[in-house]
Known about the structure:
Layout lengths: L8 E7 H13 L6 E11 L2 E10 L6 E2 L4 E2 L2 H14 L4 E8 L10 H11 L8 E10 L9 E9 L5 E4 L4 E4 L10 H8 L6 H17 L4 E5 L4 E9 L5 E11 L2 E9 L3 H6 L7 H24 L1
Parallel strand pairs: 1-3, 1-10, 6-7
Antiparallel strand pairs: 2-3, 2-6, 4-5, 7-8, 8-9, 11-12, 12-13, 13-14
Helix pairs in contact: 4-5
This protein binds zinc ion (ZN).
Amino acid sequence: MNAMRDVRSVRIEIAGGALQSVFDECDRYDSNETGGRMVGHFALVRNTLVVRARGVIEPGPKARRTRTSFFQDGDYQTEVFRRIEAEDPTIEHLGNWHTHHVNGYPNLSGGDVATYRRIVNHDLHNLDFFYALLVTSRREGRADLDRYTVRHYLLFRGDEEVYEVDARNVRITDEATIWPRDVAVTEDRLQSDVGQRRLAVAVRAHDQRILEVIYPSLKPRLSARSETFFWKGPIALVDGTEAELRVVEVEDEEKLAYYPRVNPASAESGSLCEVPFRSASEAVRALESGLNRAIYKSAVGSES
Length: 304
Ligand SMILES: [Zn+2]
């Protein structure tokens, strides 16, 4: 029944690229909690459970974050998981990762443990274990895979205990990362362009990963003439029409800001186009719901 009852030890193998994308996400949200899903494979080698984390599904554009709490965008993550599964039917949702480095709490909270217990004991949970990676602190002056400290935990179905995996049983591998998808093509292009600024590249690559799932019709572009970076393409609206969208990146006091533009323009879209957004995906989402709201309002108005 429960294959995990013979487990005597646990080994974690995590792809370096997956850990890198965890740390990139921590860099982006340095005052609020954030996290994501860990995907990969596992094996029972004699009495050792080997957990092979090969990818990380980002929290998604509707994720909600505060200093002490974090809720993921489940719809987005399910959509991504289906895409990965279509190419690799053996892929498993191994667990979650999240961060406490912003609130200084060095361990899983009572709430974290309660949530994980609920998941691992759920009938619909595929595996008899749940893997949790926790980022506990930032290491000043360190780079790359040394820039944060992490802890690894395992919970098992029907077992109240929370097991921490000793650092000696954790290995970082150079296996290819399953997700985020290799964005090298886009990134190479972006990097060879304006300024080579790391922040810009990280924000764009992150945006591109979200946009290519939710709004595949929007494509990244670079204007050779003005050296401006933008996304462009049609989005479908609730009444079946399409709006031609453009999100332009602007450098604003060392920070990047994103302004949406829409054709045909309307009063509703006009006001949304004046506010800067922190990312292109946020801008697209705001504009899409603004335009749909306007369509809905005018439909309701014409009926009365
Ligand atoms: Zn927590």
